[in-house]
């Protein structure tokens, strides 16, 4: 089987540190290697709510998009996500497939790449930090150049030090 390169967006705005840690622990059980961006603190976007913590993880997987999506949904539900969760609402834990290799379109029910990459600082900034030279599958521009062109004043975002497994998750600029 070939390994797909996948970027995952991870976020929480309810007991944020607890649920980000739980999500990372669950992902660590699934994947041999977990490359992580720094963790960012930012306002809720699309609804009034507590601020979020967000980061991006890069993984390699033999799972199909549908299998991965089902596992991620299961992890979310194990950590407090209601089965009928609506978009733009508070989250204990949210794990989204941002990209799956360079797939474009709706693949096994998942929109790829995820629109949020280009819309939201809390996705694009950590993605640009984690994988600056990777090209967006549709835009064919690097995440770094997309972030540089983004209106960075439109969404407040600040990098924080986050402790996971006795290590600070933070990347040098």
- DSSP strand content: 25-35%
Counting DSSP E segments of at least 2 residues, the number of strands comes to 10
Radius of gyration over C-alpha positions, nearest whole angstrom: 15 Å
Low-confidence blocks of residues: none
Helix percentage range = 25-40%
> Which structural class fits the helix and strand makeup?
alpha+beta
Task: Describe the fold and architecture.
There is one protein chain. The model has no long low-confidence stretch (mean pLDDT 91). Strands 1, 2, 3, 4, 5 and 8 form a six-stranded antiparallel β-sheet that branches. Strands 6-7 form a two-stranded antiparallel ribbon. Strands 9-10 form a two-stranded antiparallel sheet. The termini are far apart. The radius of gyration is 15 Å and the shape is globular. It contains five helices and ten strands, in the order βαβββαβββαααβββ. The chain is of the alpha+beta class.
Task: Give a brief outline of the structure.
This protein is of the alpha+beta class and 173 residues long. It is 29% helix and 28% strand.
Write the layout of secondary structure elements.
Layout: E1 4-12, H1 16-30, E2 35-36, E3 39-42, E4 52-61, H2 65-78, E5 94-100, E6 105-107, E7 110-112, H3 116-119, H4 121-130, H5 143-149, E8 157-160, E9 162-164, E10 167-169
Antiparallel strand pairs: 1-4, 1-5, 2-4, 3-4, 3-8, 6-7, 9-10
């Amino acid at each position: 089987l070939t390994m797909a390169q996948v970027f995952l967006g991870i976020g929480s705005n309810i007991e944020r540190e607890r649920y980000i840690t739980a999500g990372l622990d669950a992902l660590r059980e699934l994947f041999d290697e977990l490359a992580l961006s720094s963790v960012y603190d930012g306002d809720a976007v699309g609804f009034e709510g507590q601020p979020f913590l967000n980061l991006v993880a890069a993984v390699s997987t033999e799972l199909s998009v549908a299998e991965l999506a089902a596992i991620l949904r299961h992890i979310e539900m194990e950590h407090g996500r209601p089965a009928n969760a609506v978009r733009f609402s508070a989250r204990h834990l949210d794990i989204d497939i941002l990209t799956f290799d360079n797939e474009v379109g709706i693949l096994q029910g998942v929109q790829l790449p995820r629109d949020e990459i280009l819309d939201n600082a809390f996705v694009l900034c950590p993605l640009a930090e984690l994988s600056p030279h990777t090209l967006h599958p549709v835009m064919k521009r690097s995440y770094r150049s997309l972030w540089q062109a983004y209106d960075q004043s439109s969404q407040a975002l600040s990098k924080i030090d986050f402790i996971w497994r006795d290590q600070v998750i933070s990347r040098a600029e």
